[in-house]
Design goal:
The protein is of the alpha/beta class. 37% of the residues lie in helices and 14% in strands. Strands 1, 2, 3, 4, 5, 6, 7, 8, 9 and 10 form a ten-stranded mixed sheet that branches. A two-stranded antiparallel ribbon has the order 11-12. Strand 11 and strand 12 form a beta hairpin. Helix 1 packs parallel to helix 6 and helix 10 packs across helix 15. The structure holds zinc ion. Zinc ion binds next to helix 11. One of its GO terms (cellular component) is Cajal body. This is Target of EGR1 protein 1. It holds the Pfam family zf-CCCH.
Length: 510
């Protein structure tokens, strides 16, 4: 779980932030509530100082966006990364960011090596220029609680592209983004390419034409590095699925085991906000896994692999993440047992001493198989993309072309929604975090949690000279690719003009 239960006591948060950690104990189960601060135009000014403080004092910041659409899905999966970049750019120029989630994680060394204070914000935004909004995205968002009335009435206005004059003193989302750059903290995202391109175009400057220039700019914008939890989950932690909800839950469970075993583990604290702010805070529950679950229910293969299923809540099969993880772990255990038996037999035949089995060494990330077709997820993605090119580009058939990457706009990743008022998760068969309105905030929190947890497994690393988590440093996940996008400045690529101007602004007036 996301909070320390070592002694069951309520832990005191950092003095500067005041208040009490929000943990409740019910029997053996610990229910953690994550406060998500809703920021919109009527409280943006009031929240400005806390936003800035949270960003400036953070050890790292996790970000997530909710978008008005993405455009043509198949071009977003183009095998040529340069082409793929161009398609995302086109989407970022024509679509907008509906909400921005920020989760600031501040290390608290006095409370233990892996203790963080987490502050989570969900900013509702309104792009003041014309933008395309896709019916499919709207439909999905409305079905999942996104309130468009509220967005139009209370969204914080912003404009895209380059600055209009000197904006550095204004209190705007663009200035907030500039402050994020000034903070020089690691930036954490989940499947981050789309987010990065949208953030750049919407809050920073016009996008450069080439991918090389884009990554060169990013390098200077985020000198402490960019981290992608989808990359970390597949290539580093080697989880069999890597959609956000799965990865988060898996990390939460593993962290719980480590805590129970007395091993190094992640502990989190949250601020308790003053009563005057309560109206703007949504407490989201992280639920402990139910100990007794009926294993007779069959799992939905689609949801299990991708976090999404075309049938949605109508699906007769289970979308329960804990059940899915239980099943995956049982499969892994079964394989391990068989391998051990095989190895034992082999050693007996060769007359070798019964020692140590070697772990399997595969090149790609481990993947679960879907629908018995024996294809890996990325192969399906590719196949779908190819299939789409052959047939008419029409989206409908409505399924696998939307997987993972295409999901971004409509967020089918977390298709089933739990109400935040159900801490026990009693009636809801799919205890999934997130409703439409606060999803960006909570997704950013989950993303940050995963990265912090990955940090625990890397052991002590108070090495100030090197990057934070070297294996994941500046690697951005690419759907359908065995290698990530490396964020680097090559000797052949120069940074863009608009970016250089922004850099002057960022460092000139601070
Ligand atoms: Zn299903």
């Amino acid at each position: 779980m996301a909070a320390d239960s070592d002694d069951g006591a309520v832990s005191a948060p950092a003095a500067s932030d005041g208040g009490v950690c929000k943990t409740t104990k019910s029997g053996e189960e610990l229910v953690v509530q994550v406060p998500v601060v809703d920021v919109q135009s009527d409280n943006f000014k009031e929240m400005w100082p806390s936003l800035l403080l949270a960003i400036k004092t953070a050890s790292f910041v996790a970000v997530d966006t909710e978008l008005s659409g993405l455009g043509d899905r198949k071009s977003l999966l183009n095998q040529c990364i340069e082409e793929r970049y161009k398609s995302v750019c086109h989407a970022a120029r024509t679509r907008s960011i509906l909400s921005l989630g920020l989760a600031c994680f501040k290390q608290q060394p006095d409370k233990g090596e892996h203790s963080y204070l987490a502050q989570v914000f969900n900013l509702t935004l309104l792009c003041m220029e014309e933008y395309v909004i896709e019916p499919k995205s709207v439909q999905f968002l409305v079905q999942h609680g996104f309130n468009f009335n509220r967005q139009y009435a209370q969204g914080i206005p912003y404009h895209k592209g380059n600055d209009k004059g000197d904006e550095s003193q204004s209190q705007s989302v663009r200035t907030l983004f500039l402050e994020l750059i000034r903070a020089r903290r690691p930036l954490v995202l989940h499947n981050g390419l789309i987010d990065l391109v949208f953030l750049y175009q919407n809050f920073y400057a016009h996008l450069p034409e080439s991918l090389g220039t884009f990554t060169a700019d990013l390098c200077e914008m985020f000198p402490a590095g960019i981290y992608d939890t989808k990359y970390a989950a597949e290539f580093h932690a080697r989880f069999v699925a890597s959609y956000l909800e799965y990865v988060f839950r898996k990390c939460e469970r593993e962290n719980g085991k480590q805590r129970a075993a007395g091993s190094p583990h992640l502990t989190l604290e949250f601020c308790s906000y003053p009563t005057s702010m309560r109206a703007h805070i949504d407490y989201r529950c992280c639920m402990p896994p139910t100990t007794h679950r009926p294993h007779s229910i069959s799992i939905c293969d689609n949801f299990s692999a991708y976090g999404w299923c075309p049938l949605g809540p109508q699906c007769p099969r289970s979308h329960d993440i804990d059940l899915i993880i239980d099943t995956d772990e049982a499969v892994v255990e079964d394989k391990r047992r068989r391998r051990r038996r095989r190895e034992k037999r082999r050693r007996a035949l060769l007359g070798l001493p019964g020692k140590q089995t070697s772990e399997e060494n595969e090149d790609g990330p481990p993947m679960k198989q879907v629908c018995g077709d024996g294809l890996k997820a990325e192969e399906i993605e590719q196949e779908v993309a190819e299939d789409e090119t052959r047939s008419q580009p029409g989206l409908e058939k409505g399924h696998k072309n939307d997987l993972e990457m295409g999901l971004k706009a409509t967020r089918l990743e977390t298709a089933d929604v739990a109400t935040s008022e159900a801490p026990g998760g009693q009636a809801n068969p799919h205890p999934v975090a997130g409703d439409g309105l606060h999803r960006a905030g909570f997704d950013a929190f989950m993303t940050g949690f995963v990265m912090a947890y990955v940090g625990v497994s890397q052991g002590p690393q108070i090495c100030s000279s090197g990057p934070w988590l070297p294996e994941c440093h500046n690697k951005v996940y690419l759907s359908g690719k065995a290698v990530p996008l490396t964020v680097a400045k090559s000797q052949f690529s120069r940074s863009s003009k608009a970016h250089n101007q922004k850099m002057k602004l960022a460092w000139g007036s601070s």
